[in-house]
Write a structure and sequence with these properties.
By secondary structure, this protein is of the alpha/beta class. The protein is built from six helices and ten strands; from the N terminus they run ααββαβββαβββαβαβ. The strands form two sheets. The protein has an eight-stranded mixed beta sheet with strand order 3-4-2-5-6-7-8-10. Strands 1-9 form a two-stranded antiparallel ribbon.
Length: 170
Amino acid sequence: MKKILFIITLLLLPLVVEAQVVPKAKAMLTFNFIRYIGWSEEVRQGDFVIGVIKDKELASWLTKLSTGKKFGYQDIVIKEFKSVDELEDCQVVYVGAGGNYNKNSDAVMAKVGKNTLIITEVEGATNKGAMINFVVRDDILKFELHKKNASIAGIQFSSKLEMMNGAINL
C-alpha cells in the first residue's frame, strides 16, 4: 500500500504547477521520502519529528497526512517553526521558500547537526547543504537529490528513491 501511495504521488509530479496542487504534492512526497532513507539507530528513538520552517500550508498538509500514523514504532510529529532560531531537534527539516535557506543554511545546519534530512525549495539550495530540493522547471514540480550532502549528514538514499521519476541526481 505504501508503495502504491508513493507511486501515485510521483504521478502527480508532472502536473502543471497550481497553487493548491503544489503544497499537497510536496507534503505527500516529503512524508513518503522518510521511507526511502537509511536512518541511523539514534534517529529511531522517541518521536519522529518533521520540522517545517516558514511554510504554514505545507505544515498543515503534513499534519493531515500524518495524523495517527507511525514511522516504524515512532509517532510522527509535525512541528512548525516561524524562524530558524526556534528550530530544535528534528529528523527532517523542511525549509519553505519564506525561510530563505540560501541565506540561513549555516544556521539551519548548526541547529540540526548530523542525521537530519534537510528539504528545501529554492534554486541552489543543494549547493548549501540541502539533501532534497524541490524545484519548478518548465512549470513542472521536480525534486533534486544530493547524495554527497546526505552522506556527510549520515543519511543514505535508497536506490528506489534515486531512480524516481523527476529526480535530478547530483
